Amino acid sequence: MRKINLIHLGIGNVGKALVRMILENRKELKEHFGADLNYCGLFNSKSGIFDRRGFSIKQLKQFPADSRVEAKLAVDEVPLPFILIDTTASDKTFPLLEKALQKGGYVVLSNKRPLAGSNEQFKKLHSFGNRLFYETTVGAGLPVIRTLKTLLATGDDVSEIYGCFSGTLGFICSSIEDGVSFSESVRQARKMGYTEFDPREDLSGADVGRKTLILARMMGMDVEPDDIKIQKLYPTSYDGYTVEQFMQNIDKLDKEYQDKIRKAKKRENTLRFIAKISQNICKVRLTKVAQNSNFGSLKGPDNMIIFKTKRYSDRPMVIKGPGAGSEVTAAGVLGDILTIVRVV
Amino acid sequence: MRKINLIHLGIGNVGKALVRMILENRKELKEHFGADLNYCGLFNSKSGIFDRRGFSIKQLKQFPADSRVEAKLAVDEVPLPFILIDTTASDKTFPLLEKALQKGGYVVLSNKRPLAGSNEQFKKLHSFGNRLFYETTVGAGLPVIRTLKTLLATGDDVSEIYGCFSGTLGFICSSIEDGVSFSESVRQARKMGYTEFDPREDLSGADVGRKTLILARMMGMDVEPDDIKIQKLYPTSYDGYTVEQFMQNIDKLDKEYQDKIRKAKKRENTLRFIAKISQNICKVRLTKVAQNSNFGSLKGPDNMIIFKTKRYSDRPMVIKGPGAGSEVTAAGVLGDILTIVRVV
Q1: CA–CA separation, A267 vs A291, rounded Å?
Q2: C or N: which end of chain A has fewer Cβ atoms within 10 Å?
Q3: What is the four-CA torsion angle of A254, A256, A261, A267, rounded to 10 degrees?
Q4: CB contact (8 A) between residue B335 and residue A154
Q5: Residue A316: its chain B contacts at CB < 8 A?
Q6: In angstroms, what separates the C-alpha of B74 from chain A's closest C-alpha?
Q7: DSSP state letter for A115
């Protein structure tokens, strides 16, 4: 039985689901993979527990009502082999991840930010061999990153990637297509918990931009965040508003979107918020697509990614499904952990 | 640099493409993965070359104009770590595969038959730990098997799988939908090399049945080939015909298919050859589906697989793309080999 130590940052919805899945499947993981996943550290932004010998299930379940330890202590003290898991949404974890890799540990991220900051950081994290995993940063549990990695590793030439990477914006596009006004679509999405509290987090396309950046860099492009051309779904002047002011003013955008969708429909088109990555360009924008195309057939919050490669040229490879949610994301993170378990 | 020995059975279209990919990428494989893939054996049904020290590229390129050795000799003599690759379409390779696994080797299959024979054989090959890989047996280079494995390993409950697993039958269904007669569709498919020389190989659904069997067994079902209910696309009485007689008589089936597609279209449906696997049933048949459904939107020879699971319930996971072809299949086999390279 190989003991594999875990340090886990970020005990929000995804983090909690992951802890539960690991504890629930612990016995099966031992039997099937001969691996004992041993939690040595569990941290959220405010507190944490850490013991290099590991915690019992009971102790883990008591967290976060427990003692406080600085996360940075953990990485230095935890014995190899270990996995540092980052399910935060923080842009402050990079130094910890780097330290973990330097020390010979593995790193699994659902947190996009360490890979979507400077290109230097992206390259740094990739400079320690094959010990970095981040399947869920694009499409959550959908097999996107792994598929792209396999295409590249087997010598395919990935010329273009197209994607609808936001369930929230997918829901809003579908809703507008069904005749609902833009403002009402945003209100509904917000009410259903699809958007952040401040819907501009979604409508700005920033999250889609981060996913686009990760894929572009995987394809070998040296791109910085500013190189991704992102079309916001609201005017820049709205950036100064409070959330309340923003919500009060989105009605003013309804006519514009009503016109756009009407024009699109006249020619059997519809609108989707699409990321396009090719050798020379990275852009994210509201795009007209044929209703009977792959993207046109997308409904509600589903994500879709289309790979056009040398081998998949006339007929691309298409992957579709829910691209967010704590259960599918946690499962994807666990999938990465199991990949590591097989190697260690 | 770790030397990983290869024995490769089946040097047809897929096999040749694989040899070429491995030789072309050899340098990169060394640099990226620190692995030297060393060909010790190369066999087709009639002849083979074998040397436990490995062959030079020049020697490999000369095959099959070279000496003849029995394949079974290879497995006993080749030093660990080694990978036995089976890109044949033979049902005779099982004993060799078993021997390779017993000896501690890895096995990679694009050949479906060893997994689609008796359930006992399937279980036997899976009894040696995680050293058996067969990504390309369903959907060729599409990430089907790996995705199903990850869903199952992370504790998801895969309740239903639906699939269009035949490019040939997909082409024929699309063609009928476009108003072409059944017999003409088959003739076209045959002319374009989509069908085997005897199109009954495809129209019998036998190949789709094998893929269905593999997925069902992965889902934990104890099924034998006879348990898969397959609807042939021609009457059983046609089984006695020669290929020529068969081709002369398929016109008689045109009216039946014309009626079927007309009825389907009246209600905005269409016809697809669909495999359905759920806990209680495995069947493969021509099925009416809504034109605007996932399967309905499928065009030409593309494959599609739909996973319905506990986590992907309301909105399933869908993977689409070309599911056959020597390039994408060879690349998928190479993907399996690279997975092994990371572990060894």
Answers
A1: 9
A2: N
A3: 160
A4: yes
A5: 321
A6: 26
A7: G
Of residues B21, B334, B343, nearest to A342 (C-beta):
B343
**CB nearest to B335's CB, from A150, A328, A331:** A150
The confidence score (pLDDT) of residue B186 equals 97
Q: Beta partners for A107?
A: A84, A132
B141: which 2 tokens?
A: 């280079």
Note whether B143 contacts A146, CB cutoff 8 Å.
yes
Q: How far is residue B19's CA from residue B66's CA, in Å, rounded to a whole number?
A: 16
User: Is there a contact between A327 and A333 (Cβ–Cβ < 8 Å)?
Assistant: no
Q: Which helix (H) or strand (E) holds A319?
A: strand A317-322
- Region B138-148: mean pLDDT is 97
What token pair was written down for A134? 């981040």
User: Does pLDDT of B148 surpass 90?
Assistant: yes
| Residue to substitute from B126, B154, B157, B270, interface A, most A β-carbons within 10 A | B154
- Among residues B126, B90, B17, B26, the alpha carbon closest in space to that of B338 is found at B26
Burial of A22 (0-12, 13-18, 19+ CB in 10 A): buried
Q: Is B315 in Cβ contact with A318 (below 8 Å)?
A: no
Bigger pLDDT: A122 or B33?
A: A122
pLDDT computed for residue B64 by the predictor:
66
Calculate mean pLDDT across residues B5-31: 92
Residue of A nearest to B143 (CA): A147
Per annotation, catalytic residue among A211, A260, A276, A308: A211
| Burial of A333 per CB tally in 10 Å (0-12, 13-18, 19+) | buried
* Token pair in block for residue A42: 């569990």
Calculate how close chain B gets to A70, using CA atoms only, in Å.
30
CB proximity list for B138: less than 8 A, separation 6 or greater: B144, B145, B163, B165, B211, B214, B215, B305, B323
Partners of residue A28 in chain B, C-beta under 8 Å? 155
Q: Do A331 and B155 touch (CB under 8 A)?
A: yes
Tell me the per-residue pLDDT of B186-224, one tens digit each, with 9 for 90 and over: 999 999 988 888 999 999 999 999 999 999 999 999 999
> From CA A250, how far away is CA A289, in angstroms rounded?
25
Residue B70's pLDDT is what?
Answer: 55
Summarised one tens digit per residue, pLDDT across range B224-236 is: 999 999 999 999 9
Mean pLDDT of chain B: 93
The span from the CA of A139 to the CA of A303, in Å, is: 7
Q: What is the pLDDT of residues B261-275, one digit of tens each?
A: 999 999 999 999 999
Residue of A nearest to B334 (CA): A154
pLDDT (tens digit per residue) in A156-171? 999 999 999 999 999 9
Tell me the ipTM for this assembly.
0.95
For residue B261, what are the CA distances in angstroms to B39, B186, B194, B258, B264? 51, 16, 22, 5, 5
Q: Which residue of A has its CA nearest to B298?
A: A294
pLDDT tens-digit map of A287-339: 999 999 999 999 999 999 999 999 999 999 999 999 999 999 999 999 999 99
Q: Hunting for tokens 């398929």 — which residue is that?
A: B250
pLDDT cut 90: percent of chain B above it? 82
Could you tell me the pTM of the whole model?
Answer: 0.95
pLDDT at position A233 over 70: yes
List pLDDT tens digits, range A142-157.
999 999 999 999 999 9
pLDDT surpasses 80 at B69: no
First to last CA, chain B: 12
Task: Report which of B299, B322, B320, B166 is spatially closest to residue B231, judged by C-alpha positions.
Answer: B166
What does pLDDT average to over chain A? Answer: 93
Q: Show the CA angle centred on residue A194, arms to residues A178 and A239, nearest 5°.
A: 95
